[in-house]
Amino acid sequence: MKQFQIQSDGSLKLVLTDIPTPKETELLIKVSSIGINRADILQREGLYPAPNGDNVPGLEIAGIVEGTNRKVCALLESGGYSEYVCAKKGQVISLEEDFDLIQAAALPEALTTVWMALFDCGKIKANKNILIHGGSSGIGSFAIQAAATLGCKVFTSTSNESKFDFCRKLGADFCFNYTTNNFSALIKENGGTDIIVDILGGKYLQENIKSLNKYGKLISLAVMDGSEAKINMGAVLMKNLNIIGTTLRSKPENIKETYIQNVKDVLMPLVYLKKITPIIDDIYKFEEVEIAHNKIRSRTHKGKIILKF
To answer: What's the mean per-residue pLDDT of the chain?
Structure first.
């Protein structure tokens, strides 16, 4: 089978290797499509290694269970850039027969991360105020839709005003460019926020703290602006804030399986009802992975980028 492997210099090499043999706890899946995540690029750069030490990127795929006609998508620890993968049974989502496998590849990592951030860590409730940074990203686009279905007031940020209309169509009420705005003033003028899903970190952390209401929660998923920041701990104490750092990839298997079950029970029905829709920015052939990764690096995409066989 074909597979992309990360080399010591961070490049990707297309190799031919054996089809893996699944364990009793796994399913062998013939991959039709692969969801690309920024984590794949970070893994190439040596900044986000796979917990199992694997040198094959790829956290989410969609395809057919080998020997059946069963359509599935699956969350992976790594290894998705392959023609075949072995996925843990508890991290596989069965799909309706007519569900598109391109769209399905956009679901596992993003939906599970949204569940982790908004529902598990954030304890989101109806009609709360939510700030989602990076609203035009794959995770951001799902998070906006999930919060909007609960009747929440949704604030979102992007690095480019051209993405505002895209975010508003998904359900965002307020959009701002985080690179130019003192965004805490806008948010406080409109009721403050109860939960922040943050991918920025760095110099934006203090603005996040200013934006939060009493007892608010800041859920940090990434630190694209840097891992160090100066903050006013007095405000954190006086407002009884919670600052939570979390990543999906490093979670133990049983936690991931619990998240996946909640995705199946709560979020997938909303996907089938089209209240939450996978947004596909572009689709590339498997061999065009470098073009796809450059699109991610450019930060011009809206939604997910998919590789297909």
So the answer is: 96
